[in-house]
């Protein structure tokens, strides 16, 4: 691809860089749901061959962002209530379990990092810079769960967070109230963990995830009713 590589990413493949670029286009809304992804045009835009582009599309299909339809090509995945319900249900089950193990082991350095993320998150929410909402949300959850010492479960949760990134940003963009509530719940999560109130933190995390799911389901249903 023509864009310069960021420091520390010299070994990233062309396919991985193409996946990053496409992921950004989808997450930002530049490529809307249902949009056809023409491989020739994208390969030309990125200055690469079709082989790494196909690899990138397969990667994004695994993340739930793209659907590859036999004999038709690739399209941006549409919002699905069933998918949202399943992904957030799994997060609601696994993340509180990890938090119960991780929270008592969080260090002063962890809490300093969480405070930094909260400050950045607040700034980006208030500035309506939606491109970083998913990234900061994932970083916050990652640090909160990082001391659980459950690498396989963490790997599953990391995938779930990546697959729900688009949904998380959509949920936050629905209203100022959604942003305010997410900000307050994240701050309270960190406060509860810092004060050793682990059970309360795990319960809040479950409610936090369920609230995001409910917001999204209502939005999709309302949009479908408006179109009918």
Automatic annotation (TrEMBL):
Keywords: DNA-binding, Transcription, Transcription regulation
CDD domains: WHTH_GntR
GO terms for MF: DNA binding; DNA-binding transcription factor activity
HTH gntR-type domain location: 12-79
InterPro entries the record matches: GntR_C, TF_FadR/GntR_C, Tscrpt_reg_HTH_GntR, WH-like_DNA-bd_sf, WH_DNA-bd_sf
SMART domains: FCD (SM00895), HTH_GNTR (SM00345)
Any Pfam family matching the protein: GntR
Protein name: FCD domain-containing protein
Organism whose genome encodes this protein: Duganella guangzhouensis
């Amino acid at each position: 691809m023509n864009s310069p590589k960021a420091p520390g990413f010299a070994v990233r493949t062309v396919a991985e860089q193409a996946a990053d670029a496409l992921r950004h286009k989808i997450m930002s809304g530049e490529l809307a749901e249902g949009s056809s992804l023409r491989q020739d045009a994208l390969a030309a835009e990125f200055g690469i061959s079709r082989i790494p582009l196909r690899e990138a599309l397969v990667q994004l299909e695994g993340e739930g962002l793209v659907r590859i339809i036999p004999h038709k090509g690739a399209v941006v995945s549409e919002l699905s209530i069933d998918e949202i319900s399943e992904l957030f249900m799994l997060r609601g089950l696994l993340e509180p379990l990890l938090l119960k193990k991780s929270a008592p082991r969080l260090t002063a350095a962890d809490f300093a990092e969480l405070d930094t993320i909260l400050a950045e998150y607040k700034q980006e929410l208030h500035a309506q810079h939606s491109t970083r909402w998913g990234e900061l949300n994932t970083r916050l959850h990652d640090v909160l769960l990082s001391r659980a010492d459950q690498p396989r479960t963490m790997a599953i949760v990391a995938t779930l967070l990546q697959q729900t990134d688009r949904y998380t940003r959509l949920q936050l963009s629905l209203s100022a109230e959604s942003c305010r509530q997410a900000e307050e719940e994240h701050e309270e999560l960190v406060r509860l963990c810092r004060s050793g109130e682990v059970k309360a933190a795990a319960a809040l995390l479950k409610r936090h995830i369920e609230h995001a799911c409910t917001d999204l389901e209502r939005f999709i249903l309302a949009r479908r009713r408006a179109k009918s």
